[in-house]
Amino acid sequence: MQILGIGILTWIVFLPILAMILVLLVPKGREIWIKWISVVATGIQVILAVVLLLNYRYDLAGINTLEGFQFVEKYRWIDVSGVAWFGRIVIEYFLGVDGLSMPMVVLTALICFIGSIASWELPKAKGYYALYLLLDTGMMGVFVALDFFLFYIFWEVMLLPMYFLIGIWGGPRREYAAIKFFIYTLLGSVLMLLVMIGLYFSTSIIDPVTGEKVHTFNMLAMMDPKNYEPGAIFSGLHTTWRYIAYIALFIGFAIKVPIVPFHTWLPDAHVEAPTPISVILAGVLLKMGTYGMLRISFPIFPDGMLKYALPMAILGFINIVYGALAAMAQEDFKKLIAYSSISHMGYVVLGMAALNTQGVTGAIMQMFNHGTITAMLFLIVGVLYDRAHTRGLYEFGGLANQMPKYFGIVIVAFFAALGLPGLSGFISEAFVFLGAFQTYKWIAIFSATGVIITAGYILWTTQRLFFGQLPDRWKNLPDINARELVTLVPLAIIVIFLGVYPSPLINLMNTSVNHLVRFVSEMGQAGGMQIGILP
Amino acid sequence: MAQDTLILFSILALLLPLGGFLLLIFFGRRLPRQGDVIETGLVLGSLILSFVVFFNKILNFPEPIEWKFEWVNFGFVKDWGEMKITLGILVDNLSATMLVVVTVISSLVHIFSIGYMKDDVRYSRYFAYLGFFTFSMLGIVLTNNFFTMYVFWELVGVSSYLLIGHWYEKKSASDAAKKAFIVNRVGDFGFFVGIMIIWASLKTFNFGEVFAGIEQGKLSGGLLTAAGILVFCGAIGKSAQFPLHVWLPDAMEGPTPVSALIHAATMVAAGVYLTARTYAMMTADALTFIAYIGAITAFIAATIAITQTDIKKVLAYSTISQLGYMTMSLGSGAYVAGFFHLVTHAAFKAGLFLGSGSVIHAMHHALHKVHDHHTDPQDIRNMGGLKKKMPVTYYTFLIYTLAISGIPLTSGFLSKDSILAGAFAFGKLSGHVLIPFIGFFVAGLTAFYMFRLLILTFHGEPKRKDVFEHIHESPKVMTVPLVILAILSLWFIFGPNPFDASSTWVEKYIHKPRSVVPTQQQFEFNLPVKLEEGAAITEYDHALHKAHIPAMLLSLGMAGLGILFAFLTYQWGKISAEKVANAIRPVYTFLKNKWYFDELYANTFVLATLGISRFARWFDLKVIDGIVDGSAYLTKLWSFSIGKFDWNIIDGLVNLVAYVTGFFGYVVRLLQNGKVQTYIIYVVFAVIVLFYIFLG
Q: CA-based angle A90:A93:A94, to the nearest 5?
């Protein structure tokens, strides 16, 4: 599918870059142009995502076959022969979507659009929006890249704007937070880079142009054991090197999720980042970690996945419960929401570790639903902070009467976060548990206690903020305004809609999820490995 | 009427209150009278539809009617087959009866609220939540599967949360709301684990398919018992059974009509309904567990109710006690009796609460008139003599009190008698004699504390003359529902014979479901022993039959004793309550403080959770970030020392080399002074040395 002779995925990825160039060309004193350019560009991105959805074929699986991917763009990008001991380097510009990436593309477009509206009031618009749009490209690219090198580049492209967006537009401890974020992520990137290079030298395919054997960064090629050269570092199944590579890659992605104990960058980054950046961070960025696991770790290292599925499930449990407990002890509204993110990403990890249809479906749904719900939550924090200039939970009370519309929206978001049936969060959590229970009975049961703790901190926060008597200093707080409602209401509608009728989202990913589960478990079991089951 | 129409009507009955909710929540303040009439009208519509469904189902369709639709389809799944979730609606006699119960009480509470909640700050919001509650409750009633059961289960929890916290400016109200939700979540956690077991072993949520699967032996043994008990955990939370009963007394912070609807008649009965729904899958062990939970609950709550002085608190504990009764009844095998009691209790307990609401309303206004804002309008110690001023409230209240005490000619007599007969038979056959013992004892306690309440509130002399002056009977909109509920508490609503429960339509149309549990996991006395007139008769049925008369006499005796003591103590003053309390001071204090459950939980679970959560926060800040920042610091230190090394050692060496070179350069430079004669001396000296080396 092409527009003006250029593939639609290229459009959706690079449209923000075009907008960024426009933004940089805007003359001084016309800040309003910058804002409109960004909002329109991200809006078009949403339209493109909808076009993708309308033309999406539900029967194609993707994962490891080129034919299964849709909207594929595959061109030779870098082809240099005779680079010292590297030999010939071939890197492809290879984009495509399947059921794993489609929900993420939609989510990214949506959250970026809402984020750009929410950024309206921030100072230094030019620099801000330029970086914001660059970030958008990086994230979108990660979700559609099918060449590992390209994936890595997009992954790194996203890093730098994020650093500056937190470091310049952030709160009082922004520099600490930005550096912490940067270094943590960089550590992950280094691990990923090493594995990527190892994989590159282990796999080779026949170059269709020249007919000679060349190494490749093609992810799909890396999923096929036939493409591994005998004797190469990652060839075979169930070798020590492959396990090491899986763990390294896992840590690389785990930092992004974040999985305890690699999570402490997140509360700091969230608390310091400006509202729209928190929205992006929690809404989209965290999903890159779990997406990476599904897209890369699982199908390329199915043996490692199966071997370490049990520890992964335990990590998921720790995330859920530890995150919820830590959230309960917070006194800063934003920090509380940040920890709730950690807890909710634990469901994703648990669902993936279950490696069955329901678990993985639940995990991807949770990625999407957490994206929308947590975006709402951070926007909600922003609304309050913009008015009160404080986030101390102990300083509020009685806001239900002072800001009734705000209260209404918050109730929807809060109940979605605590997994109330009828709202989208419940569906994904329920599926994760139902899936996880089939594989790990006790871990699923213990994890489900997180639901009680979540109810505890969410209701406690509701009470702190909205009930009781209104302190005199907040007598003049205005209710939520139209622009803020524009950012929140669409998300609320999605949360309610998917809570009642999740089938559109499930159907979107179903073929791919079934294929992924079958592929990984069969590949992994080829070496006699069974997914670990606790008594 | 065709089956489809019946299903359509029940769906409409379900959705009408939801429509009311949506209308009121978005446009409430702009609607005429803030939308109360619209919402009430919609619920009345729902009521009419329910009656149509009820009569049609009972009279025309002996078999259950089910409607299913596919909600989610995961396609063909490895090791599973086609994985899909179908939801739907089940109309059988149980749900049709419950449909009517819920809509009747809900309609009456709606009407009563128009009077009671007049001039409330959030009048419209209140009615919206009532609509939402009715919708969710009907969802529980009509669902045909565990999944939507859980969904609506939590949704009634939310409406309960919102309504308990209706006056959220009060800390006690918002605390109570929070507590109710969280305690219920604990029960729901167990419920959900039960659902997970069912889904994983039977691959379906549908009640019928689940039972069929169990019958085929796909789920049996300890896991089946566990599943049964875990599902029952949901009931423990929602029906406020021991040990999760602590939320219900606090829930009285909500407006009184809400207490009547949600926390007395319908929502809390949902647990009993759930147990009845899933009855077929309960093993003997699970049933014994259920029976004991019910009996313990009934006993604990009744003992607490005796010592309470808040009119609503007394009723709250009485509700818990009566719910325990129903649960005990189901557990002990008297399935129909348990459900029957749910139905009769719904009417008279809703009446008791609305009646207390009428009293509180009057007290509140009277206290307001005399500008007393400190006296508690709910404390029965401030009341007395209200009979004269509020006759309608009094006489209806009397009927409800007789009904809950199990006095003949009331509905409560019919259902309570059946329960006790069941407990009797169960105790005799299974050897669990504690169950009937508690059952009868609690019957006496109930009569005692209910008449204590009645006497202290309505009889005797008014405690506050000035307030009494201003007491008025409530308006028609409030008294009419009271009268209707009083009529519903009489025997003829259920059957012609006031002494024979088996002649009632409930006993006729509601039947104990056939157990699908493997026979070795059932009570032996529940297995059919011989065929009588084509129906399987069990040992239990026989025992039950024989137990009816003794149970009736014994329960009447107990109730009579209870009433007698109540009159002796509170009406005639023959026994001094104070002296008795003083004589058993430790016991009294223990009961007065509600067995210290709240304190126990606060000091164990709550404290531990808060402690662990603070620890988690500390761990994050100090340990994990300590390691992170520490390694950053070490890296920095390392890089600084490398810097030092560079500066001192490496650059030092470089400088040394340079210095040495420089030194030699200096020395050598000294030789080169630019004078020819010096150079000639060097040359001569060199020639001499060379000659000496080569020739010498």
A: 110
ipTM above 0.90, yes or no: yes
Give per-residue pLDDT as tens, A96-129: 999 999 999 999 999 999 999 999 888 888 899 9
Residues of A in contact with B25 (CB under 8 A): 408
Cα separation, B252 vs B377, whole angstroms: 14
**CA B222/CA B232 separation, integer angstroms:** 15
- CB B103 within 8 Å of CB B142: no
Strand partners, B626: none
Helix (H, G, I), strand (E, B) or coil at B178: helix
Give chain B positions within 8 Å (CB) of A264: 620, 624-625, 628
In sequence order, the 6+-apart residues with CB closer than 8 A to the CB of B681 are none
A28 φ, ψ (degrees, to nearest 5): -60, 150
When the pLDDT of each residue in chain B is averaged and rounded to a whole number, the result is: 90
Task: Name the nearest CA neighbour of A313 among A532, A509, A535.
Answer: A532
DSSP string over A363-412: HHHHHHHHHHHHHHHHHHHHHHHHHHS--BGGG---HHHHSHHHHHHHHH
Q: What is the pLDDT of residue B499?
A: 85
Please count the residue pairs, one from chain A and one from chain B, whose beta carbons lie less than 8 angstroms apart. 138
For residue A321, the SS3 value is helix
Strands A204-206 and A213-215: antiparallel
Mean pLDDT of B57-84: 88
Tell me, rounded to whole angstroms, the distance of Cα B74 from its chain centroid.
32
- Around B38, how many Cα atoms within 13 Å sit in the side-chain half-sphere? 19
Strands (DSSP E) found in B51-112: 65-77, 81-91
Model pTM score:
0.91
Cα–Cα distances in angstroms (integers) from residue B639 to residues A184, B213, B630, B653, in the given order: 18, 68, 14, 20
Within B117-239, residue ranges assigned H as helices are 123-142, 146-164, 171-202, 207-215, 221-238
Contact (CB<8Å) B151/A421: yes
Distance of alpha carbon A528 from alpha carbon A521, whole angstroms: 11
A468: contact with B, CB 8 A cutoff? yes
Whether B181 contacts B156, CB under 8 Å: no
Tens-digit pLDDT profile for residues A56-112: 999 888 888 888 899 999 888 888 776 666 667 788 899 999 999 999 999 999 999
> Distance from CA of residue B413 to its chain's centroid?
27
Q: How many Cα atoms within 13 Å fall on the side-chain side of residue B501?
A: 32
Residue pair A412/B158 in contact (Cβ under 8 Å)? The answer is no
Angle, CA of A57, A62 and A64, to the nearest 5°? 165
